[in-house]
Amino acid sequence: MQLPFSRDAFLDVFAAYNTSLWPVALALWLATLAALVARLGGRDRSEWTFGLLAVQWAWAAVAYHMAFFSRINPAAWIFALLFLIQASLLTWYGIINRRLRFSRENTIVEFAAYGLITYGLVYPLLTLADGHSYPRVPMFGVPCPTTIVTVGFLLLAGQRIPPLVAMVPLAWAAIAGSSAFQLGVHADLALLVAAAFLAHRTWSTRAAIHA
């Protein structure tokens, strides 16, 4: 797939983002860590957590796609719209409608969920270990770690994942995951694993319900 921008231009976008907005990215990272710790401790903070994720998707839409990525890729405006839609869906299903509620299962899916959330949190270190140098490297508060962390928390919502909530993360996983080698961000390959778990969880559950 031929991209409309170079790898250097892509990394320059992260340099501008990190230089300007690193305090917010750090705050989002710390809030996500707090959400993970709360979940590991058995505290049901479903509304707070999915509200935080909604903020992260809206932030990635405006602060990353609109403000920076649109400089090198016109499709960023479409991506921003999709990310805002995802933020709205998380708000609706996680806070207003309250259909996204955490549950304990002790299954391989729950294990994978915690693994994905942890992966999203260490994502900045993985990208640095991959040979990139700060600030020309994706860190946090940007689309890929946001998607990985979101899938992890969705998997912890048991058998209550509405298909609409899964659509944008799956779409972004396909877009960014398929470009991981081309752009040299190998940490994004985890998006494909996350997408496989999310798709299986969402549609196999629905099939079981309607069987």
Summarize this structure as a short list of keywords or feature phrases.
single chain; 211 residues; 72% helix; globular
What does this structure look like?
The chain has helices at residues 7-40, 46-66, 76-96, 108-129, 143-155, 163-177, 180-183, 190-210. It is mainly alpha-helical. It has one domain. The longest helix is centred in the first third of the chain and has 34 residues, at 7-40. The radius of gyration is 16 Å and the shape is globular.
Brief write-up:
With 211 residues, the chain is mostly helical. Helix content is 72%, strand content 0%. Helix 2 runs antiparallel to helix 5, helix 3 packs antiparallel against helix 6 and helix 4 runs antiparallel to helix 8.
Topology:
Layout: H1 7-40, H2 46-66, H3 76-96, H4 108-129, H5 143-155, H6 163-177, H7 180-183, H8 190-210
Helix pairs in contact: 1-2, 1-4, 2-3, 2-5, 3-6, 4-5, 4-8, 5-6, 5-8, 6-8
Poorly predicted segments = 207-211
Number of domains: 1
> From N to C, what is the helix and strand string?
HHHHHHHH
Q: Could you give the distance between the termini?
A: 39 Å
Largest sheet: none
Instruction: Report the helical percentage.
Output: over 70%
